[in-house]
Structure formats: C-alpha cells, structure tokens
Amino acid sequence: MQRVLAVIFLLAVFFHQSQAQCNSTNCVAPACRCMSTSTPGNLSPANTPQLVFLSFDGAVTTTNYDNYTYLLNNRMNPNGCPIGMTFFIYQEYNDFTLTHSLYHKRQEIATHSMSHRTPQELWASKSANEWVDEIGGMKDALAKFANIPKAPIRGSRAPFLQTSGDQTFSAMKTLNMFYDSSLPTTDFVDPPVWPYTLDQGFQHDCLIPPCPSNKFPGIWTVPVITLENDGTRCNTVEACPQPKTLEETYQFLKRNFERHYFSSKAPFGVYLNNNGWFQSANFRLEGYKKFLDYLSSKDDVYIVPLGRGLDWMKDPKPLSQVANFFNCLPLTQTSCQPVSCFYDGEASAIGPRIMKSCVPCPDVYPWTGNPLGIA
C-alpha cells in the first residue's frame, strides 16, 4: 500500500512539474501550446468559434455507414460547408469502399491500430516498433485499399484509450503523425482545457497509465474530456449511465456541451465506439440527431474533424473570419472499383475473413506486420 501511495505521489509531482515548466518562453505559438483553458490567439470567448469534435472508433461497415450518412446528410456549418467527423479505423471487418466514400464526403480518416487485439493490457506494454506496425500499418492499409491519399491520415487513437506512454509517442514521432486523442482527464474538465502540444511534455492527469514522460515536439494531444451523467464521470459516451429515452439522450449531450460553450469554449468532443450505442437503442441515434439540430441553430458552432480544429488552433482566426478558414475543402477524386476479397487457411492469420477493397485483392489478408497483404 505504501508503495502504491508513493507511485501516486511521484506521478502527481511529475505532472505538476510538467505544467510548471511549460511557459510562453519555451513554448512559442503557433507551433507550440501549453495546456490551458485560455482561447488560442488571445481571442475573447465571444470572438472564438465553439468547435465540436464528433468521432467514431472501429471498422466502417454497411450498418454504421448508413447511420453516419443519416447524421451527415445535408448538415452544414454556419458557412454553408458540410460538417466534418473523424473516423478512427482498425482493419478487421473494415469496408474500404465505404471508407473511400466517407473520405470523399470530406470526413477525416484516422488510425485506431491494425489489430485492436484484446485484452487492453496488451497495449500498455507494446514497444515503439510494435506501435509503428499498428499505427503505420493501418495508415498504409487505409491509403492502399481505400485508395485515398496518405498525407491527410494524420491522427491516431489507441485501442481502449490504452497507450504505452513514451513508446506510443515515439512511434508517432517516427511516423510523423500530427495528433493523438487517447488520454482522458477528469481534473481539467470544468472549465475544460484546450488541446496542447507535447513540446514540454504531458501536462494533465494520467488516468490510464503509463502516460508519456518525455517531450515530443510537434505532436498535439487532444485530451478526452470526461463526460458526466447522473453524477458519474466517464471517458466515453458508452461508459456513462445510459440515457433511457430520446429526450434524455439529447439532454445528456446538450448539458455536457454547455459546460464548454459557457466557459472556456474548448472543443467539445463526443467520442463513440463504432455503432453499438445506436444499434442497441435507436432512440439514441435520434437523440444524437436532435443534438446536432440544436448545434446547427448556433452561428458560432463549427463541427469539424479533429485535425482541422487543430489547424485552426495553430492559426486562430476570429469568428468573423472562421467561415473562410473552414471553407469547403477541394478534393481530388480517386477511383474505387469495389471488389470482395475472401481469405481462409494460410491466407489469413486470424481465420476466415472477407474484405471489401477499392483495388485488386491482396495475396493474403492484411494484418500487423504485413499491412499490404503481400505473400
């Protein structure tokens, strides 16, 4: 017991020192940002857009694609451009043809590992090289089989929000990733903190150890701001006490949003694991949609992918100029010739699998260590 208390004390001292050592002298905007509740660019709250980050973790399938497009359909930001979500994708059961479609609807495609293996504890001890295989491998697979550019795949979220601390972020540095969104906080939620860079190290509370202890210049962390429902704090929507009606779902999301909107205006995130929250109770999908309708009634709220939100933080424009900043991104169309690929026996290391691809089928089922499926 004394040893546990000692570890907790040392962690507390470490994070306090990390916060204290980051300042405007050693962390100069826009490339660097300390953890703070202050708005970027010293903008007043009234002149700051309220950013909303909506993300979904897991494989894109026919069922959840229908729900995603139902939510996205004809939904615009105040400047008339489509809203944007972020999809953290893993390999198993992913439909790369639908991933291609989401990308061409101007949605952000990001990585959620190649294998997403269980149990959670496996990820706490992974080496940097293993993380390169997981994050980099998924990035390669997404670019190849969804036939989309690799450069816009800039973000990552660890399976189960479980990193292995420095090993994970060393791999991200090797891969030149832009941001991570895996590390939750309960200490800095009221008012909520803004995303920050790891130039001067990790600065918020470590809820799922190990957390990074070294500095990783240029990598942004988007803290997973815990939500609250019925007096319970939770890292993800699914972990909270579950709403029992459409109206409860709407009020749950609206109440947590307003904690951001009426205080620091830090980005509000709704992070869901795939489609299960909607599938288990369709009224939650309708409550979520009602919440999006509520957001659409506000002329200072922009629903954007995480990566574009961070781009704005690096070049913060006042509300009067935000419409131009979050313009309708031009996209170079890429082809998708859908094919269904079937694997079993020695062609798949994890048993019989089907994969839908935009390009000809690879020799073997793509997996960790062989993300392009080359025999």
From TrEMBL:
Source organism per UniProt: Daphnia magna
Leader sequence segment: 1-20
Protein name: Chitin deacetylase 9
Keywords: Signal
Gene3D superfamilies: Glycoside hydrolase/deacetylase (3.20.20.370)
Source taxon at top rank: Eukaryota
UniProt xrefs under CDD domains: CE4_CDA_like_2 (cd10975)
InterPro entries membership: CE4, Glyco_hydro/deAcase_b/a-brl
